[in-house]
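From the methods appendix. Each design record in this collection lists the tokenized structure first, followed by the designed amino acid sequence. Records were kept in a plain field format so they could be parsed without special tools. The example shown here is representative of the layout used throughout.

RECORD:
FOLD TOKENS (362 positions):
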């Protein structure tokens, strides 16, 4: 008798799928494990039988055959409460999850906040629990790069090589980053084109030296002769940090007429301070943010002109580079991710382009 529905007495087996689809157990196994030596018509028949029967492969047995766990570690070198308050992280993680789902894989989220977390994370990564790791928010000289290198765990990093990294120390590690420096130049040049002359910046924190340093460098690129230390204030990528930094800038330079803020979250705080100080935006002070987080940029008063970077696409690209290292080695045409000249030799390091989104604040 041909099976046509899920048995209530027991779980469907590999033998049931083979019988239902009219092929051998080894053929069913090859289809389940994604091997390419099976005709498309047979693959379709087997998948249809799996769906009808409600068959769920034995993950432990499948791992023995494929040597894959179906899990990828997402490692964040930041406090858990800070990241979950950051909409950019939410978009990045959404891209990671959606791309992993296309590969029938899942994310395992790990946080590194204290020194004691490093051996715990190292034990997990080296214990055969995951097929690779995606790491981001690393600080200069962070030990995580060396840990995954020593363990031989395939890894992709968010951000370009950090100032604390020694050249050539980790030559095979792929990296994905937004065009932070180029995006900052776009923002500041836009402010210059509006006739603004006293352009300040709220830069990111020192412990985020990757994106923060690049966005500050882009600001200085656009103002080679006019950038003054009195017009630069650091903050911590939070709304309150942006509010406090804006207050400090106004105290030092009350005549400033524009500000480039290195994140939308900080820009929302800066707008609050400007409103409290009686400064009209954009009439008195024009404001440009960075990230284009629509939950923020479209709801501020006024709506925020900002630099768009596709955080979800960055997450997806990190997964593709991890599971298919050839992806991104040669950058496509304009508007697509491109190979980064700063990446280690042999590693597919990719820069995701940015663009200016004009709204009412500048």
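DESIGN:
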């Amino acid at each position: 008798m041909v099976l046509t529905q899920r048995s209530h007495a027991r779980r469907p087996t590999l033998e049931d799928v083979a019988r239902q689809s009219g092929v051998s157990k080894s053929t069913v196994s090859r289809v389940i494990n994604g091997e390419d030596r099976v005709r498309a018509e047979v693959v379709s028949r087997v998948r249809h039988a799996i769906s009808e029967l409600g068959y769920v492969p034995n993950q432990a047995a499948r791992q023995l055959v494929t040597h894959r766990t179906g899990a990828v570690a997402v490692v964040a070198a930041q406090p858990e409460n800070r990241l979950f308050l950051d909409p950019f992280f939410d978009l990045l993680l959404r891209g990671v999850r959606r791309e992993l789902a296309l590969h029938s894989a899942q994310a395992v989220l790990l946080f590194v906040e204290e020194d004691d977390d490093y051996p715990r994370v190292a034990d997990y990564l080296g214990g055969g629990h995951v097929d690779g790791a995606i790491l981001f928010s690393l600080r200069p000289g962070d030990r995580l790069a060396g840990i995954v290198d020593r363990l031989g765990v395939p890894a992709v990093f968010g951000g370009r090589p950090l100032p604390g990294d020694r050249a050539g120390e980790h030559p095979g590690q792929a990296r994905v980053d937004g065009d932070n420096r180029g995006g900052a130049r776009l923002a500041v040049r836009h402010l210059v084109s509006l006739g603004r002359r006293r352009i300040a910046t709220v830069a990111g924190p020192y412990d985020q030296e990757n994106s923060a340093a690049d966005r500050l460098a882009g600001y200085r690129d656009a103002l080679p002769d006019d950038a003054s230390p009195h017009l630069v204030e650091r903050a911590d990528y939070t709304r309150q940090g942006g509010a406090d930094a804006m207050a400090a800038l106004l105290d030092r330079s009350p005549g400033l007429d524009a500000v480039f803020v290195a994140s939308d979250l900080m820009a929302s705080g800066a707008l609050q301070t400007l409103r409290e100080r009686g400064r009209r935006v954009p009439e008195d002070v024009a404001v440009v943010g960075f990230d284009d987080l629509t939950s923020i940029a479209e709801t501020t008063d006024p709506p925020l002109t900002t630099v768009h970077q596709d955080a979800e696409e960055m997450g997806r690209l990190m997964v593709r580079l991890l599971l298919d290292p050839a992806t991104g080695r040669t950058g496509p045409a304009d508007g697509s991710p491109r190979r980064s000249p700063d990446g280690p030799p042999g590693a597919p390091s990719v820069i995701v382009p940015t663009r200016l989104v004009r709204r009412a604040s500048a």
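APPENDIX NOTE: The mean pLDDT is 83.
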